[in-house]
Amino acid sequence: MISKLKPVIVLAAIMTIVSALLIVTYNLTYVDTSGILTDELREKCVALSGEGEYSIITDWKAEGYSADKPENVEKLIKKSDGTVLFQIITSGYNKDGLDLLIVMNNDGSVKGVEIVSISETPGLGTKVEDKDFLSGFSGVSEKITIVKKAPAADNEIQAMTGATYSSKGVAEAVNIAIKTYREMGAAQ
Predict the structure, then answer these.
(1) Which of 52, 75, 166, 177 could bridge to 87 as Cys pair (CB 3.0-4.6 Å)?
(2) Based on the domain organization, do 57 and 19 belong to the same domain?
(3) How far apart are CA 73 and CA 39, in angstroms?
(4) Torsion region of 63: left, alpha or beta (phi above 0 gives left; psi -120 to 50 gives alpha)
(5) pLDDT single digits (tens) 45-57
């Protein structure tokens, strides 16, 4: 009986030791990158807002934002001149398929939108990368709605044909940025 259990006990002991070593190695080598501005993200910031010093804000309360960080806001970035940028990840057709950078004007309107990365369906969902579509969000300061036909109101933007879900994802990110910026401004 013991001879039959011995391999199971030995294997369990080996697995426990290996798991413990993996945990220790992870904890010793982990580097927190949440406050680091990558070169790619910095390039997107410069493309939207021009040259300057950019830094990631990790203490939202110091910026006047009293609530918890919004779920979809990946990073709050501040330029040395006070310009605020949000990196927001939302779902289009794919879950979390849109990684966007949105820069705000001081008056609470959107200055510009740039796609950091996209994992939407090539040829369909990726149509939202169109500069004319993204520039349609510039200047908006109220909640945006995506419509399939020509917009009838100022707060409406026409979806990219074949990319309705992705278009709605971009609008959702813009709406999150507007709401978050407004809440930050109201708290100050």
Answers:
(1) 75
(2) no
(3) 19
(4) alpha
(5) 998 889 999 988 8
CA 37 – CA 20 distance, rounded (Å): 32
Q: Which domain holds residue 129?
A: 39-187
Q: Which two tokens stand for residue 111?
A: 């200055």
Tokens 């026409």: give the residue. 158
Pull the structure tokens for residue 141: 């300061």
Distance CA 176, CA 86 (A): 9
Does residue 94 share a domain with residue 167?
yes
Residue 121 exposed, middle or buried by CB count within 10 Å (0-12, 13-18, 19+):
middle
What span, in angstroms and rounded, lies between the C-alpha atoms of 118 and 60? Answer: 26
Single out the residue of 157, 164, 105 nearest to residue 134, CA to CA. Answer: 157
The reported pTM is: 0.78
Q: Phi and psi dihedrals of 71, rounded to 5?
A: -55, -45
* pLDDT tens-digit series, residues 135-163: 999 999 999 889 988 888 888 888 888 88
Distance CA 113, CA 103 (A): 7
CA distance 160 to 100: 17
Indicate the number of domains in the chain.
Answer: 2
